Amino acid sequence: MNVALNGCGRVGRALIEHWLTQEDMPKIVLIRRKNYQWRRKDGLSREELSTFLDTGRFPRTKVKSIQDNLYDRDIDVWFELTPTDLSQAERVHRDMQSVLISGVSIIFANKAPVVHDYLKLKRLADSFGAELGLSAVMGASLPGLALARYGAMGATITELAGSLNATTNFVLEQMEQGQTFEQAIDQAVRLGIAEGDWSQDIDGIDSAIKLSILASVLFERNVPLDRSRIQGIRHLTPAMIQRLKAQDKRYKLIARYREGEVSVSAEECSIDQLFYHIGGSQKILWLATKELSDMSVMSGRSGLAEVAASLQRDLVAIQQELGR
Fold this sequence. Notes:
Layout: E1 2-6, H1 10-20, E2 27-33, E3 36-39, H2 46-55, E4 61-62, H3 66-70, E5 77-80, H4 89-101, E6 105-108, H5 112-116, H6 118-127, E7 132-133, H7 144-151, E8 157-163, H8 166-176, H9 181-190, H10 199-202, H11 205-219, H12 238-246, E9 249-258, E10 261-270, E11 283-289, E12 295-299, H13 304-322
Parallel strand pairs: 1-2, 1-5, 5-6, 6-7
Antiparallel strand pairs: 2-3, 3-4, 8-9, 8-11, 9-10, 11-12
Helix pairs in contact: 1-2, 1-13, 4-6, 8-9
């Protein structure tokens, strides 16, 4: 398949690194990076991509509009890898509408346009024979959608809850072991668990977005964000964390969906609760239904390699769906 990468920061580079390990990699015909782009209709070679990863060398060809990039109709899948910036959600959403109207499928790492209006993107994809890849915006390696769609098939889901942000899980664990907040977040950035701008993680926004998107997909309705119902972990001090530890309890940042609304807060979890045992950069999703017993799914380490693998998983699924 011919693919385009819109954005080539840490996630884009990790995806290229992943593909270079594969015997059968997709044909990259376009990379857009800030103000410049790299366009090659016959596909960029492995040597060119390896040199780019090693040196950062990138052509100085001025970036064209998305509509111009789509004009030749040689792109099958568009990877939207730009950073999640909610202030730009409406603009990026308009751009993604143009991509879908051209019949091009989209795989998202940028959560902003999806949480802005998932339903409109889904309807356009259905109307123009395109697909949406959403693994990376719902927890990457965490197969939460698969659990909800297939594990709870035929049942009525009444509640969702998840520890969905690897950065906060890691930071809380390190603070429990005696590090300061600053030391823990610096280590998370060095290990590739946290982005350079980690504010959305720490403030609970990332967790809220992920669960909002998952709920929107499951219930086929847009689930909006209500900032008044979102609280992160900035208020937690080492003393508070150590006091809970002495009681065999831990703070975990948990996102919950109930009765059409998403909330996020740091909850006290005792040792007999599922969320207590999620450590490091792990994630977990739990759900309740009317007819079946509660169920959950957990993922292991979360990092750039896992995000890249989840993007590739979406590409494989789209190839199978479209029969290409």
